[in-house]
Structures are given as C-alpha cells and as structure tokens.
C-alpha cells in the first residue's frame, strides 16, 4: 500500500531521520511521518476515529520498520477544540521527548504530549538555505515556533539570531534545541516573547526615527500560522496580515539581505501571496516542495525566497 510512496523518499536517511513517508492524499486521507524510530500517522477525515484508521491501515503500518508510533485525527477547527480529537498508539510508545537529526543538527520531538511534534518537516531545505546565508549576519526568525531556523542560523555562525514568538512554551523548547546543539552558551540566541506584529512595528519605528543609526537585519524568516487567537482575543489571519508583514520585513531588511516567507494556507490563492511580495523585492523565487511533500491538488506549503 505504501511501497511506491516510500520508495520516492529514497536517500533522505542520509540527510535526516525525520521526514514524511506518505503525504496527505498520496495514498488516502492521512499522512505518515517518520521521527527517528517512531511514526506519526495523522488522519484528516474527522468522521474516522484514530482507532478506526489504525484498524484500516494497521497491517500495512507493520511493514514499515519502526519501534512504534502514534495515530491521531486532525480537527478542522482546532481553535475551538483541541487540534487532535483522539490518540491511539501502536508498538512501543515513544518517550515523552526525544531528538531527531537533520543536516547534522538535533531537534527535540514530542509525539504524545504536544499538539505538534516540534519540527516542520516541509521546511528542511529552507533551513539549510537560511543557514548558508547566515554566517556573520543578523538574523530574525519571526513566528519562530521551536526555533529550528534559529538553530540552523546560529550553528552556521550568525552574529545574532532573534527568535520572536508569542508562545512561551515554544521558546522554551527553542532554548532546549540550542542546548542540544551546543549553542546555549554562544550568546548569539535571543528569545523574544512578543506578538510579531508589535516587534516589527517597533523595528520600523526605530528605523524611521533614526535611519542612519538603525542596524538592519540581513536574514529574516517569516513563517506565520494560518490563523491564531491571542489570549486577549486578538485574531491573526495570514491572508489579512500578509501584506503588512511583507512591507515591514522589507523595511527592516538590509539592501543585500534576504527574506524567506512561508505559509500553509490550504484555501489560499497562490497568486495573491506571490504578487504581494513581488513589488517589494528585486527577485521573488517560489521554492519547490521537498521530495517528501509532493503537490497533490492543493499545495501543502508555499515558500518564497526574496532578495
């Protein structure tokens, strides 16, 4: 059942032990991700419980070498309910946290105690690309989540890396990811718990108040969520905020700087996201998806490299 899909991932083990084995809709209404020795199966049909999904594909799962894993069903409206409605395990249960490798780095993963494992697998090559431009540079990682881009940049020798996110728990995991890679005492990682929009607005005001004294950013990563609600009820929508984010990032970017923008708005218009960036940058390149995230109907993620 999974053979052809898994064969297309041949060679990834040399780079990482965390990648997507079966993409959403490649075989059925589910995806299968490998995180080291464990598998994470995500079902996208709310009418099918995790137990039912495991019953349907369990015999095929057993053909994939692994220690065990988790099956969970994705909810369509995770902001009113938990992101996953139920969990089932198979084989040996994964540890509460463990690490995986990617391009020589380590990242903390949690499959059964968190709504997200902690590493966006579809940005693997984007992290490598950012690392290649980060040596000696000032890097801002916006909506930093667990700071994987920040780790890649700091390990590559960035002068300083600011990780900005409103979720304290994500930043705490980010500091642990720095420690996992021997970067905790480097002094180059700065973790800022703040709404990205407010942080950007302050940076823009600093530049407007003192253009000559403002120190611009050389590399900016902006990978916002599709939708989020802060504790005070301030809703964030990537479609609504995209233009403002793009303009602010361009304003604080150095003239020879680069920015990486990404989003996984499945219902979004590709043309809108691309055309919003075009007038602001000399070049805007739409990056192809990695081999383990083939485009099947709706794009899984849009990633743009802007000079």
Task: Characterise this structure.
This protein is α/β, with parallel strands linked by helices and 307 residues long. The chain folds into two domains: 3-103, RNA methyltransferase domain (HRMD) like (Transcription Regulator spoIIAA, 2-Layer Sandwich), CATH 3.30.750; 120-306, Rossmann fold (3-Layer(aba) Sandwich). It is 27% helix and 29% strand. The strands form four sheets. A seven-stranded mixed β-sheet has the order 10-9-8-11-14-16-15, sandwiched between helices. Strand 12 and strand 13 form a beta hairpin. Helix 3 runs parallel beside helix 4 (148-155) and helix 6 runs parallel beside helix 7. The longest helix is centred in the C-terminal third of the chain and has 15 residues, at 238-252. It is globular, with a radius of gyration of 20 Å. The relative contact order is 0.11.
List the helices and strands and how they pair.
Layout: H1 3-7, E1 18-22, E2 30-35, E3 38-43, H2 50-61, E4 68-74, E5 84-91, E6 98-102, E7 105-109, H3 124-132, E8 138-142, H4 148-155, E9 160-165, H5 168-180, E10 189-193, H6 196-209, E11 217-222, E12 227-229, E13 235-237, H7 238-252, E14 253-263, H8 270-277, E15 284-286, E16 302-306
Parallel strand pairs: 3-4, 8-9, 8-11, 9-10, 11-14
Antiparallel strand pairs: 1-2, 2-3, 4-5, 6-7, 12-13, 14-16, 15-16
């Amino acid at each position: 059942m999974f053979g052809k899909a898994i064969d297309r991932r041949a060679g990834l083990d040399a780079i990482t032990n965390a990648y997507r084995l079966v993409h959403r809709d490649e075989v059925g209404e589910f995806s299968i991700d490998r995180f080291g020795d464990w598998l994470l199966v995500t079902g996208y049909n709310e009418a099918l419980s995790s137990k039912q999904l495991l019953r349907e594909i369990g015999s095929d799962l057993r053909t994939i070498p692994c220690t065990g894993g988790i099956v969970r069903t994705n909810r369509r409206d995770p902001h009113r309910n938990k992101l996953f409605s139920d969990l089932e395990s198979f084989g040996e249960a994964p540890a509460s946290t463990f690490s995986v490798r990617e391009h020589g780095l380590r990242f903390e993963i949690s499959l059964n105690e968190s709504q997200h494992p902690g590493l966006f697998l579809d940005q693997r090559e984007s992290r490598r690309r950012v690392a290649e431009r980060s040596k000696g540079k000032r890097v801002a990682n916006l909506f930093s989540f667990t700071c994987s881009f920040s780790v890649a940049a700091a390990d590559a020798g960035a002068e300083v890396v600011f990780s900005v996110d409103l979720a304290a728990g994500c930043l705490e995991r980010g500091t642990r990811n720095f420690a996992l890679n021997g970067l905790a005492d480097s002094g180059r990682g700065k973790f800022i718990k703040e709404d990205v929009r407010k942080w950007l607005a302050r940076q823009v005001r600093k530049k407007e108040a003192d253009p000559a004294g403002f120190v611009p950013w050389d590399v900016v990563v902006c990978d916002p969520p599709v939708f989020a609600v802060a504790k005070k009820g301030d809703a964030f929508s990537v479609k609504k905020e995209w233009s403002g984010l793009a303009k602010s990032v361009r304003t604080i970017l150095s003239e020879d700087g680069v920015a990486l923008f990404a989003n996984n708005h499945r219902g979004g218009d590709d043309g809108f996201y691309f055309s919003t960036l075009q007038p602001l940058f000399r070049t805007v390149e739409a990056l192809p998806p990695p081999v383990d995230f083939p485009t099947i109907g709706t794009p899984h993620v849009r990633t743009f490299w802007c000079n």
